[in-house]
Amino acid sequence: MMKKLAVFLVVLLLSVLPLSLALAETETLKWNFDSGIGAWGVEGSWEYPAGFSADNVSYDADMKALLLSPLSFDKNKNWSEIKLNIPVQTNLTPYRLFRITLIAESEAYKAAGGSFKVQPIAILAGGGYNALTNSDPLKTTERDGLTRLEYEMGLSSDLDVVSITVGIAGINTAYTGKLWVDDIGFFTVEEGVYTGVNAQVKPVSNREAQKAEIAESGEIAIVDKNATAKTRSLFEYLKDVGKDYLLFGHQNAMHHGITVKMTDGTESDAKNAVGAHPAIIGIDGLSIVSGAEGSYAQSVQIAKNADKSGCILTISMHMPNFTTGKGYNDITEGAIADVLPGGKSHEKLKQYLDTIASFAFDCVSEDGEPIPMIMRPYHENNYGWFWWGISGGNQSEYRELYRFTVEYLRDVKGVHSFLYAYSPNGPIGSEKTYLQLYPGDNYVDIIGMDYYCINMSKNSDIFFAQLLSSLRILSDMAEARGKISALCESGVSQGDLGYGGLAVKDNGDCETWFEDMAERIMGDEKARRISYFLVWANFGEKQFWVPFARPGDRNSHEMIDDFTAFYNDDRVIFADRTGDIFSHGAALVPAPEAPCAEVVFPLDKRYETKEGYTFLAKVEPYGCEITEITYTVKAHPDVVFTPALNPESGLYEAYVDLTDVKSNWYDTEFTVKFSNGTEQSFTGAISRNK
Predict the structure, then answer these.
(1) Is 620 a catalytic residue?
(2) pTM (2 d.p.)
(3) Among 51, 155, 247, 665, which one has the highest count of C-beta atoms within 10 angstroms of its own C-beta?
């Protein structure tokens, strides 16, 4: 989804709460530098290539601020920090709020890209330190060539402090020049002023796990005939448990979070709130391969700890554009063709997939067996915000990319611990629309979609109506094909309130969104058949999708009671209730391959011709018979051709004669019906140059 941010958070996080900038102050500990910088000095730096010393710090009498100059951050660093320090000798218990202002040169700030975070660190009297929090700016204003960044962070601590270090971290920024620091302070707040809520709903503990009731002799329509017993068991588990229960998932849950301090797979915001991890844990290629959201070793450790905790792993892949070297949202046309076999970037794609395969082999459970995972490549492909979407190629190229990826991981690299999920963006209007880019039953285990409640804080009913309609379609398709259905990504995005996820407060009708999801989905006869839904990552105070809970009065998110009630719902499964996932697959046998068809020429974008062309298609019946095959040029009237098999090429061919057709533009449709009752159709368009 285009709202995603690849923000790297440091390991040490503690009790963060962004608050309103209008909070009233009573007692304060602050520095405004009106008459100098006093005892402020340099603590040092971390991953700051240029080096940072006392020579970089001075007092600007005109600005009445502490000046940092010259600066030179490295754009390739996810977290490049310079540190200031002042002796304090105090206890932070009374203080519930930290504020600081950075002032940057506007032109340089815009040109540099990236951003700045601020992190106050308490140097403790007993030795060691405690990173109190870190934050993006809550308010940014520009005036007279300067950009003012105002930060505000909530605190919940009881620390004897020798000194305070203020870390200023560049996040993938190339900023150079001057940076001013002003209005630093620790504050208390007046009683009754909003800082959050006290959690009222208590998590229910020690409930029994939900057991899957599986017929061991049944056949499963699984992509990998050589899948491990555990992987086949996971398929059947998801298929069975999904009939009566809803598994809950959270992306990056075990290494990104507002309350997460240990990022090795032992903590999560969900567990810190309700006592249990999500049932589904998402990890992305941005952690496994590129290092933008974590590291390879960290991802392996997370997978192992998640498996021990009863979690199910799913992998998404935000791949870079292999041709341009830019990010996943570089939608340069032709990007898909470039990575297909014979394309100029094909080897780069294979190198990326090699790392994914290595990850699969390195992720083993305590019994030494590979950990089963849900692989979800090339998601949201039916929109134009990723290079693998409709802007980067056409329908046939996308299907070929998906198929190549499955075949390369499964057949070339020998990865047999993956189930494969397909998830275009929702809502889904019809089965026919969904199948336009569908790679085929032979390549998909989980029929899913991504669908977010975006900017609907006052109109959530619209979201739920479209959600349920879409899930009914997915459930029917999955049941007819012997597959699993799922809502692979979802969540509330309060973009109209300035958040890439939930808002800190005033979430409107979405304040009960989690329980509403359980009620709406599980209350619908067809929609309830989906096996799981997953929300996106808690990257920070400006983008989080799961409410957080922290100790201390009025210190939790306003939706924490709704989230806890969602956890308490017996129909909803977190990791503490997943039960026996991996002992059902040993006797399961893959079902026969399903028939499939594919257009070879012309591909889906507008094809220009003068008088005619030869239509080519590949059809693989896999034991079925073709009961009908047509290629229709939708003119006035429609012109219908019947492709015939060419034994030499193995392709179905039809010469499309447009001599007597008057129009200049035509939509086309290729349709194949099989004796097993399935039907596949593909649309395209052509233009006739007279």
Answers:
(1) no
(2) 0.70
(3) 247
